[in-house]
Specification:
By secondary structure, the protein is an alpha+beta fold. It has helices at residues 42-51, 66-69, 72-79, 91-95, 97-104, 175-186, 205-211, 217-220; strands at residues 8-15, 20-27, 32-36, 55-60, 83-84, 123-126, 129-135, 144-148, 153-157, 160-161, 164-165, 194-197, 203-204. It is globular and about 50 Å long.
Amino acid sequence: MSQSPPLIGVTIVPVTPLQQNCTIIWCETTKKAAIIDPGGSVDVLLEVVKRRELTLDAIWITHGHLDHAGGAAELQEKTGLDIIGPHEADQFWIDQIPENGLRYGVAGCRSFTPTRWLDDGDVLTLGETTWEVFHCPGHTPGHVIFFNREARFAQVGDVLFQGSIGRTDFPRSDHGALLNAITTKLWPLGDDVTFIPGHGPHSTFGAERRGNPFVSDAAMSRAPIARPATGPS
């Protein structure tokens, strides 16, 4: 008789004035946890980890924007943990974190060099759980997402939102690359996959394929595809 795969735990802690979904994930069997995208409020995040009696194991970053990575250096300093991700193409965004922190009124943000850069096809482990890495450029050139196949769960940062997609009006953004990443890397993972985006409520890939005005199957059958005029960072 085969054993069921280890379950995962997930909780969201909104951080920064941009209300970014910092996501704490953990292996239910071992209670080992990772913090995905600690944009700020580091002490609050550590208190959540302590309250849930988790053992923090790593810091994972989807991309280098301030609201996703602005607290990573402080979190590493306070825990001694590795910063894993994003893809190396986002180093220029990480270098701008202090400047952008001042612009958005988020104090104490620092740049950093990740302990490990990530590439498409990399695999991370967290306790007894396995997470696949997909490089999904477009919003930023080095954006990655994290996928747990057994739990049918993904954390997608600012690639995809409920009813929208990531902005592509930033330096080195690429609208076509973003649409390609969503349709060729996310959709094949399955309509039943629940995802947490970088901002706003969770959804499923199936719901977005049916109703997202930018990347639904119906929208992708038409051309050209409009860019979102506004949206999360």
